[in-house]
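Input (structure):
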């Protein structure tokens, strides 16, 4: 082989790889055009029928919309699945169809990986690892994950973002606005403007791996001494805004424990409850994407589950202390049946123009969400309810009132809080966990103090609500 020259067969292989990846991006662009046209056509048909006074079938329209969106595997699938878990943000027929859509982006090949890694860590990027597997172990809508090993033998997970994702997300958000417009023509009970703003902000944040690294470090500090909740360690020297390198978390899929003993299932649910509620009540932050893929279960040497790994911190929502105070105020208001305190909590959250009818409607939903936390006994999170139907019946009752007496504008902070609570409840239903949720919740909030939470936030967050680099402060030791 002649030195300094690329052999002909290698040049052909490289050319084919580059062509394949260009074709993938071209195909993605063409799918955006196609999907946009299809979604617009669905909206136009509905508008036309409404103008002509022709009754349209929600189920058929939902199927048409799902078929249009199904032509694109990318960020929009993430949004579609998210929307399916916010009860009554869309009609139930739409939510059911969107919930079936899967984000199954094909992983990019080795040539792509090498170029992206070089762009993030420089031409000698491979020397930064002892081993690096160029074949992705997982591919999602925004990026893919690779296994690697550090020079000291530590197993690593490298999350590498696809190129041009900001453009892709902005295009998807345009489609999401159309979906909301379709919803507005079906039912006007909920003003979705703030929901759209909140989803847009969170989805854009997911592209910033530096922010995700800070959120990961924050959670690692919160659970530093916790035996039930494990958080991967970020490797800052191997991370950028588009590459996030962390320690690899060994664990099993949560649903693989569905047939285990109730004691094992309860232990897992107890760890998940703490992983969600403790950061909220003590730091004013939540893990806003509690779907099954973001948790794995770790075991001891005897195969007994001991806790959970938190795996993804791309969707973390921080709240002002007044919002956290509102959550506790609403709880105590419902517990004592104090209507004035309940209304005060709604107003603290930012709900405006509340009439007695709207307050009653919102309290139906509040009593559903808080129901297990108000009930001092061992029980499931929702008796006689399937995971996929969690909250649907109550949301339908609320939405019926809102159509007649509303609309009501949902405050931005409420969107992911509500969505995460529903997602968490669905996980508990999958596990069929039976616990005293009242005791768990009261143990979590018994020392809640808004001023103390505010001091912690000043210590760990900047003025814009963004976590400071972990080196800027001491470990909280909590």
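Output (sequence):
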């Amino acid at each position: 082989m002649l030195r300094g020259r690329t052999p002909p067969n290698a040049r052909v292989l490289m050319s084919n790889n580059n062509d394949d990846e260009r074709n993938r991006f071209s195909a993605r662009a063409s799918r955006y055009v196609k999907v946009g046209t299809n979604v617009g056509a669905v909206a136009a048909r509905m508008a036309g029928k409404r103008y002509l006074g022709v009754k349209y079938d929600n189920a058929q329209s939902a199927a048409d919309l799902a078929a249009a969106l199904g032509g694109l595997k990318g960020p929009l699938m993430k949004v579609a699945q998210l929307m399916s878990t916010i009860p009554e943000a869309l009609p139930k027929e739409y939510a059911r169809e969107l919930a079936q859509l899967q984000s199954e982006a094909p992983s990019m090949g080795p040539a792509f990986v090498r170029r992206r890694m070089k762009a993030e860590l420089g031409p000698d990027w491979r020397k930064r690892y002892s081993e690096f597997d160029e074949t992705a172990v997982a591919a999602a809508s925004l990026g893919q994950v690779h296994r690697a090993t550090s020079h000291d033998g530590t197993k690593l997970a490298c999350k590498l973002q696809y190129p041009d994702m900001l453009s892709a997300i902005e295009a998807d958000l345009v489609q999401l606005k159309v979906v909301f417009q379709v919803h507005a023509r079906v039912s006007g009970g909920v003003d979705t403007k703030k929901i759209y703003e909140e989803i847009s902000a969170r989805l854009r944040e997911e592209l910033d791996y530096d922010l995700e690294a800070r959120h990961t470090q924050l959670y690692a500090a919160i659970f530093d001494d916790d035996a039930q909740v494990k958080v991967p360690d970020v490797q800052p020297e191997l991370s950028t805004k588009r590459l996030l390198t962390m320690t690899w978390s060994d664990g099993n899929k949560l649903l693989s424990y569905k047939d285990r003993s109730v004691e094992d299932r309860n232990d897992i649910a107890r760890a998940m409850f703490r992983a969600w509620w403790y950061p909220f009540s003590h730091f004013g932050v939540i893990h806003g994407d509690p779907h099954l893929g973001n948790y794995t279960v770790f075991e001891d040497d005897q195969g007994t589950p001991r806790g959970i790994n938190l795996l993804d911190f791309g969707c973390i929502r921080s709240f002002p202390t007044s919002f956290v105070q509102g959550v506790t105020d609403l709880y105590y208001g419902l517990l004592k049946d104090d209507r004035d305190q309940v209304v005060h909590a709604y107003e603290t959250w930012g709900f405006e123009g509340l009439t007695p009818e709207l307050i009653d409607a919102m309290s139906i939903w509040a009593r559903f969400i808080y129901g297990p936390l108000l009930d001092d006994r061992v029980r499931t999170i929702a008796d006689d309810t399937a995971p996929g139907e969690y909250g649907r019946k109550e949301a339908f009752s609320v939405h019926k009132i809102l159509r007649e007496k509303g609309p009501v504008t949902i405050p931005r902070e409420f969107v992911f809080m509500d969505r995460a609570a529903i997602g968490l409840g669905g996980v508990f239903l999958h596990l069929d966990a039976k616990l005293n949720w009242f005791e768990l919740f009261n143990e979590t909030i018994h020392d809640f103090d808004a001023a103390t939470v505010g001091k912690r936030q000043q210590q760990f967050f900047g003025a814009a609500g963004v976590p400071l680099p972990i080196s800027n402060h001491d470990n909280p030791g909590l």
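Notes: The mean pLDDT is 78. The longest helix spans residues 8-52.
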